[in-house]
Amino acid sequence: MKKTVFRTLLAASAAVILIAGTEGQIFSIAASGIRSLTNSSHSQLFDTNRVHKLDVTLPFSALAAGDVASCANGGYFGRTNRNLRYAIGLPRAEAAPNEGMLETKSILDQHPNTAVLALGDLVYKHGEAVGFEDCYDPYWGAAWARTWPTPGNHEYHSPYAYAYYDYWQDRAGPDRNGYYALQAGNWLILSLNSEIDASPGSAQAEWVKEVLAAHTDSCTAAYFHKPAYSSVTRSRTDSARALFRLVAKAGVRFVLHGHNHFYERTAPLNAEGKPDQGGTTAFVVGAGGKSTQGNLEPAAFSERLITGTTGMLKLTFTNKTASWTYLTGPGSMETDSGTVQC
User: Fold this and answer.
1) Is residue 334 part of a domain?
2) CB within 8 Å of 93: residues ≥ 6 apart
3) Residue 33 belongs to a domain
4) What CATH code is carried by the domain that includes residue 173?
5) Domain for residue 77, yes or no?
6) How far apart are CA 152 and CA 83, in angstroms?
7) Which position among 20, 182, 211, 226 has the lowest Cβ density within 10 Å, counted as fewest Cβ atoms?
8) pLDDT at 2 > cutoff 90
9) For 188-218, b where at least 16 C-beta lie within 10 A, e where not — what string?
10) How many domains does the chain have?
């Protein structure tokens, strides 16, 4: 009898810890697992090499930004309440959006037919399912069918980024590993995952090498959440640096990142992050809703750094070039523009 009571108390304690530790997400995680087990269908968007051919004619444009949605939610207890109510289907109060996300939504609305490259950390704080449904989707969700995402570290604050993959489905790639490629005319654009292993010999690294080797006649670009090189250096960038090394050695013309909440463009860099006229230019476009205030000291390799405003990078691809313009939120006159040769 005592053993039964002890086991019951132990099980109840474990349940409380699970609910508290995941802020109530455990119920959504369980539902996600059931859906994954019952839905074994494969992506219809990608070929066997994880490449999706976009139906476009050049010139072709895309908007890019990351670090987007952060709605007021009442802190820990508010998030737990929203997660629990979401998991059992109870109504929830409308989530109050952050002003920056509304500013970049306005940019999206001004370009209604333009593809969107979403550069990770799309909903704060933990990339949970209720965050995507209540905070991201009512605003940036209108562009879902033209958005091609990459995951950020905040998506992986939820176990295995389950909510990110549930929300984006096939558009996150042909499986739940979060890397794939888009082919637009003669451009091959790699969407990579800086939150999983990219070291030599990893599945992601081997795929990058294979897909680039199969498209040697293409102009190439890439995007992944964490920057390998930026004026603000942050921890846990091993995968980002491994990815940058891979694409730079292959001659990829430029890469796009989020993570740091500002806009930055580096000089062309070699695989080790040193300035090299024939190297790869890195853009940080992490002000899609969040923005860093105040001045920052640019690194020696930085050619343009804009803080204090939200914004999105507009890219226009032709057969031989990619041109860029940084579109800022209201009240800012700062911008950046230029062209990189294929």
Assistant:
1) yes
2) none
3) no
4) 3.60.21.10
5) no
6) 20
7) 20
8) no
9) bbbbbbbbbebeeeeebbebbeebbeebeeb
10) 1
- The rounded Cα 341 to chain-centroid distance in angstroms is 25
69 and 123 in contact (C-beta within 8 Å)?
Answer: yes
Cα 156 to Cα 187: distance, rounded to the nearest angstrom: 29
Q: What is the pLDDT of residues 271-304, one digit of tens each?
A: 999 999 999 999 999 999 999 988 899 999 999 9
Neighbours of 322 (CB within 10 A): 23
What would the two tokens of residue 321 be? 């070039």
Q: pLDDT at residue 38 above 50?
A: no
Instruction: Give residue-wise pLDDT tens across range 224-234.
Output: 999 999 999 98
Report the interhelical angle of 203-213 vs 238-249 (nearest 10°): 20
Which amino acid is residue 63, in one-letter code? L
**Could you tell me if residue 87 is inside a domain?**
no
Return the residue matching tokens 């109504």: 91
Name residue, tokens 């992490």.
286
Reading the block at residue 101, the tokens are: 């996300």
Question: For residue 306, which phi and psi values (nearest 5 degrees)?
Answer: -125, 120
Which DSSP string corresponds to 67-100?
--B--B--HHHHHHHHHHHHHHT---PPPBPPHH
Angstrom distance (rounded) from CA 228 to CA 257? 9
What's the token pair of residue 248?
């730079």
Q: Are 127 and 258 in contact (CB under 8 A)?
A: no
Q: Do the Cβ atoms of 192 and 198 come closer than 8 Å?
A: yes
Q: Is 317 helix (H, G, I), strand (E, B) or coil?
A: strand
Helix (H, G, I), strand (E, B), or coil: what is residue 162? helix
At residue 78, the pLDDT reads 81
278: number of CA atoms within 13 Å, CB side?
3
Q: What is the mean pLDDT of residues 243-271?
A: 98
Please tell me whether residue 159 adopts helix, strand or coil conformation: helix
CA distance 180 to 62: 17
Secondary structure element (H or E) that encloses residue 238, with its range: helix 238-249
Q: Look up the domain containing 222 and give its range.
A: 46-72+96-341
